[in-house]
Write a structure and sequence with these properties.
Chain A: One of its GO terms (molecular function) is metal ion binding. The complex is a heterodimer of chains A (431) and B (386). Chain A contains 18 helices and 10 strands. Chain A is an alpha/beta fold. In chain A, the strands form 3 sheets. In chain A, strands 2-1-3-4 form a 4-stranded parallel beta sheet, with helices on both faces. In chain A, strands 8-7-9-10 form a 4-stranded parallel beta sheet, with helices on both faces. A two-stranded antiparallel sheet of chain A has the order 5-6. The longest helix of chain A has 25 residues. Chain B is built from 14 helices and 8 strands. In chain B, helix 8 runs antiparallel to helix 10. The longest helix of chain B is centred in the middle third of the chain and has 27 residues. Classes of the chains: A alpha/beta (431), B alpha/beta (386). At the A-B interface, helix 7, strand 4, helix 8, helix 15 and helix 16 of A face helix 5, strand 4, helix 6 and helix 13 of B. Bound molecules: iron/sulfur cluster (2 copies). One iron/sulfur cluster binds next to helix 4, helix 5 and helix 13 of chain B.
Chain lengths: 431, 386
């Protein structure tokens, strides 16, 4: 690939569609005071979008705001503001970016003021930080709040007790709170319709993610993947828009496959596929493009990633099920990636390594995210042991630019690719 | 026995990273088993009722050299999981038949799975607790979780846990909890008689000894402390908060005292005081334990606070009850629950004109001078303005 070319954004129809959806959602959120729509603030993993929208409520996700601010290079200042306000340098930077965004007037990416939420819905899945983040938000907004505790699947299975507990909370805590905020009575059929639409979109998402099993993958399942999961992880699961987005996307990827093309990058089609990697951990958002470029410049394609499972693991067969809507929502929340125990996470990565014919595992360890990061070194060793493929470790942060050292990351990656080459050569010799 | 003798024994237990006392208990009779658990809370009664020894594991402290553990964790993760891994990898916990990792934070949660990978033949379980405090929702869930634990403990020990045995264990732990409360009350009333470092060591001993033995120790200590004459100092009264999991080095606890502070409440080893009222011994013991958890348990950063008004109230109540003049927020570096909650607690203190300072530590922090200086300046300012 000619790296001297000026990066230009190449937009497929699906990208334009997603852009429109996001812009429309921000307009709906910031226009809520005029339209009278009510806003629910909630989190990505284990979000209850089908349920929220069945009440005609809008969904605002603080992590997505933090990501947006990270990509627009605004989060650094916000985090420092939060730290000056007494927040520790050690804790999750999403939280601090969110708190800092408030102190800067809560301006949404469309330049308008984000109204305060009418309800805080904490569906706390896969990470304890959400619980305290939520308490911090409650202090700030002083609005109605409701919490859904999703037990951790510590033994690697969803038990009846866990599912019953979640369903009971949905029935007796969450739904009444949503009824109160919206003034709308719960309609299970509306929920079912939303869930049926989710399942359709999920089918196409899985097809897209699994297209990376082709050697000469038509997608990058990490850097590209974060765009592909956008609608399903955020405010659009259960909407017709999401169905259409994934149909468009699937069509485009089918075409790339037919044409024998690799992934699309910010600088156009990617050149030769030299390395196939599995990546564990969230990306760095503040230098997202720069980070990605370090991969595609070297011909490295991410064929599977765990981050794209943080808001739902669909490739193991789970679909939102309209016939058992509440139980299915419970299973969705319980099954999100970081709500799975370490052995299950390792098993999933091992499966990806094998099924996607990966050359190695790369871990992007996030400084401020214990939920992902605590235990990753052991995960890497396990995978190396089980697959015989090399692992590598880079350390960055989500939205704190102070913790992205481009030179270090680049060095690490370059030596890693050399290691993969060596490993290949030696296994060819022994073969 | 004098307090010095009792505390010398506690110190020996504290320093012993091979857990010789717990090993000795196990070896004293055939078939005995030991179940380790990490902070912050597990219902020890269920282990006890199975005839096993609950062993509180609070990391390796500053006496354990961490060699292998560091290879398991990045520099930005707290110390307790790496020193616990070190304990596991160096054979120090080989006599432990099962490990419980209670719901507290993502690090301990993930450690439960790492333990499963590291020691596939040892029982290891993540033990969840409810953050929903309704009897019919969180209560029912928790009762079933405890029944599952009861079943597992029966299997592990080979002993049936009858309701009667469980109620009997609850009665013993009630007695223990009352004595623990008494020690804390005594320190709050006459802090010059009961130094914090002694209370700390005393409570630590309870993590490795059978509860019956610890009951005797607590009783003896209080009797001895009552008898001894210790000079009253012109210290201020403070509460330390944030050290409910990874423990500060003993020197840090001593440094705060030496800097002119009487610690009149703290959150070390909350498991000893988690259930704050006597748990009924009549009726269904599992339900009784669940009720106690839902309605009469300690607050901590590892727990969800269900209303805005209640945030930090436990700390403010303690300030008032113990007539504390200030709060020292001392939390382990990289401790999410403590550090995320700290701004909320600090705001609550500021709103109520309670002076506070904060610092971070690690279980192996060596440099005490800065802490002594910070605590000393704080103590001076409290004395000046009170
Ligand atoms: S700690 Fe990690 S999982 Fe938790 S909120 Fe922050 S980024 Fe998300
Ligand atoms: S010290 Fe804090 S972050 Fe570390 S394991 Fe304990 S509670 Fe979790």
């Amino acid at each position: 690939m000619n790296t001297a070319t000026k990066p230009e954004a190449i937009k497929d129809a699906s990208m334009l569609k997603q852009k429109e959806m996001i812009a429309g959602n921000y307009d709906a959120l910031t226009g809520a005071p005029e339209t009278g729509k009510k806003i629910v603030s909630t989190f990505v993993p284990g979000n209850l979008n089908e349920l929220i929208s069945s009440f005609g409520l809008l969904n605002n996700l603080p992590e997505i705001n933090a990501i947006n601010n990270g990509m627009r290079k605004q989060s650094g200042g916000m985090i420092m503001d939060a730290e000056r306000g007494g927040h520790s340098e050690d804790v999750c930077t999403y939280v601090k970016a969110d708190i800092g965004m408030m102190s800067k007037g809560n301006i949404a990416p469309n330049g308008k003021v984000m109204p305060n939420p009418d309800l805080l819905l904490l569906s706390y899945t896969g990470c304890f930080t959400f619980m305290k983040w939520f308490e911090l938000l409650r202090k700030e907004y002083n609005c109605d709040t409701v919490m859904l505790q999703v037990p951790y699947t510590g033994d690697g299975v969803i038990t009846d007790n866990m599912r019953d507990f979640v369903v009971k909370q949905l029935k007796e805590e969450v739904i009444p709170a949503l009824e109160k905020t919206s003034g709308v009575k719960f309609d299970i059929d509306r929920l079912r319709e939303n869930m049926a639409r989710s399942a359709k979109a999920e089918d196409d998402l899985v097809w897209v993610l699994e297209s990376a099993k082709n050697v000469r993958s038509p997608i990058d399942a990490y850097f590209g993947g974060v765009y592909y999961i956008g609608p399903i992880f955020t405010a659009f699961r259960g909407t017709q828009d999401a169905i259409e987005y994934y149909q468009l996307l699937r069509g485009e990827i089918e075409q790339r496959l037919k044409d024998g093309l690799g992934p699309i990058t910010p600088e156009g089609d990617m050149g030769e596929e030299k390395y196939r990697l599995v990546v564990e951990g969230p990306p760095n958002w503040t230098s997202f493009r720069e980070f990605w470029k370090m991969f595609y410049d070297e011909g490295a394609v991410v064929v599977a990633s765990t981050y794209t499972k943080v808001g739902g693991v669909y490739d193991e067969g789970f679909r939102h099920d309209p016939t058992n809507p509440l139980e299915s929502l419970a299973d969705y929340c319980l099954g999100c990636y970081t709500n799975r125990n370490m052995p299950s996470r390792v098993d999933l990565i091992e499966k990806y390594m094998n099924e996607y014919q990966a050359d190695g595992l790369l871990i992007n360890s996030i400084k401020s995210c214990n939920s992902f990061s605590a235990g990753q070194l052991m995960m890497m060793n396990e995978i190396e042991k089980r697959t015989g493929k090399p692992g590598a470790f880079v350390e960055t942060d989500l939205v704190d630019p102070r913790y992205f050292s481009a030179a270090n990351v680049k060095n690490r990656l370059e030596s890693y690719f050399q290691m993969v080459d060596q490993k290949r050569r030696s296994s060819r010799k022994t073969a | 026995m004098s307090t010095a003798e009792i505390i010398a024994r506690c110190e020996e237990l504290y320093e012993d990273t091979t857990f010789a006392a717990s090993r000795a208990w196990k070896e004293a009779a055939p078939g005995r088993k030991v179940v380790g658990f990490m902070p912050v809370y597990i219902p020890e009664e269920i282990i006890h009722a199975a005839g096993m020894l609950p062993l509180g594991i609070l990391g390796g402290g500053d006496g354990l050299e961490v060699i292998h553990g560091d290879a398991f964790y990045q520099s930005y993760i707290c110390r307790i999981p790496r020193s616990t891994i070190e304990l596991g990898l160096t054979g120090r916990l080989d006599f432990v038949d099962g490990m419980l990792f209670p719901s507290i934070c993502d690090v301990i949660r993930n450690l439960s799975g790492m333990w499963k990978l590291m020691k596939p033949n040892v029982y290891a379980k993540y033990f969840d607790v409810p953050q929903n405090y309704r009897d019919d929702i969180g209560g029912e869930y928790y009762q079933r979780e405890m029944q599952e634990l009861r079943h597992d403990m029966e299997k592990l020990s080979g002993n049936k846990i009858t309701d009667e045995a469980l109620s009997n264990s609850i009665a013993i732990y009630n007695q223990h909890r009352q004595l623990v409360r008494d020690v804390y009350a005594m320190r709050s009333d006459e802090p010059w008689k009961v130094p914090s470092s002694e209370v700390y060591l005393l409570m630590r001993a309870g993590q490795v000894l059978p509860v019956e033995e610890h009951i005797v120790m607590l009783t003896d200590y209080m009797a001895a402390a009552q008898e001894e004459d210790r000079p009253i100092r012109d210290n201020c009264r403070i509460i330390t908060c944030g050290a409910f999991c990874e423990q500060p080095p003993l020197n840090l606890i001593k440094s705060i005292e030496m800097a002119g502070c009487y610690v009149v409440d703290d959150d070390y080893m909350l498991v000893n005081r988690w259930l704050m009222e006597e748990v009924p011994t009549e009726g269904d013991p599992i339900k009784n334990l669940a009720d106690a958890f839902l309605h009469h348990s300690a607050d901590s950063s590892a727990k969800y606070c269900d209303t805005q008004e209640k945030v930090g109230q436990y700390l403010l109540d303690s300030v008032r009850k113990n007539k504390a003049e200030g709060v020292i927020f001392a939390a382990p570096s990289f401790c999410d629950p403590a550090l995320l909650e700290r701004p909320l607690l600090a705001a609550k203190m500021s709103e109520n004109d309670v002076p506070h300072i904060s610092f971070k530590y690690a279980e192996n922090s060596g440099q005490m001078q800065p802490i002594r200086e910070q605590a000393g300046t704080f103590a001076d300012s409290l004395k000046l303005w009170s």
